[in-house]
């Protein structure tokens, strides 16, 4: 569904990475790990069309990203749910409206009535539906961000350090949700430093661990 082939990226200085290839196929579950600053977030941004590769080919759902205009990228983005590292919300809107925002922006808010209660229940936030984002805990915010990322039923879910600021129990809960999404057929890519999370996942789901370091992407061994 998403493919990067021989991709290089530079923010203007030296190349952050080069000749990098990655495939996000249906039903795949992959982790992306590597030292801080290696380029994990940058790689995710290339996958959802937020950045354009300096060279190489990025294919989004069969289309070369270079040939897609802004509207085309917006359409492709609807098929990609992203949980951002900092999970920002509109603080003046209740959680339910924040989660439904992608539908609202797409002019499909009528669908929220059907989907939203089930989705909030799935992430365990039904009771918090009317709370404002500043009233939520870190784990609640992460689960809300995941709900918002999947409200459009994307084919691909990208999560950037989704368990960065939450305790182990909450990380496990979030992991279970990501595994459930994967079992529904979605391609899942999770950028994380959390090796314990990766180990816990490997016991539950067939997954691949990619390590980005020194501009190279390698498949990590079973030892991890
Ligand atoms: N907009 C930008 N302009 C210039 N340099 C940037 C920009 N965004 C990121 N960088 C640099 O690119 C490098 C990779 O950043 P990136 O956020 O992709 O790394 P990361 O592996 O996700 O790091 P972390 O694990 O700390 O989140 C870093 O050196 C960062 O400072």
CATH topology of the largest domain: Rossmann fold
Please give the largest β-sheet.
Answer: 6 strands, mixed
Overall geometry: globular
Number of beta-strand segments? 10
List the uncertain runs. Answer: none
Radius of gyration, rounded? 17 Å
> What would you give as the CATH superfamily of the largest domain?
P-loop containing nucleotide triphosphate hydrolases
CATH secondary-structure class of the largest domain: Alpha Beta
> Could you report the average pLDDT, rounded to the nearest whole number?
91
- Report how far apart the termini are: 27 Å
Bound compounds: adenosine-5'-triphosphate
Approximate strand percentage: 25-35%
Keywords: ATP-binding, Cell cycle, Cell division, Nucleotide-binding
Domain ABC transporter: 2-224
GO cellular component, one term: plasma membrane
GO molecular function, one term: ATP hydrolysis activity
Structural summary, described in words:
This protein has seven helices and ten strands. By secondary structure, it is an alpha/beta fold. It has two domains: 2-79 and 154-219, P-loop containing nucleotide triphosphate hydrolases (Rossmann fold), CATH 3.40.50.300; 91-147, no CATH class. Strands 6-7-8-3-9-10 form a six-stranded mixed β-sheet, sandwiched between helices. It has a four-stranded antiparallel β-sheet with strand order 2-1-4-5, with helices on one face. α3 runs parallel beside α5 (138-150). The longest helix has 16 residues, at 168-183. The chain is globular. Bound molecules: adenosine-5'-triphosphate (ATP). Residues 11, 16, 34, 36-42 line the site of adenosine-5'-triphosphate. Adenosine-5'-triphosphate binds at residues 11, 16, 34, 36-42.
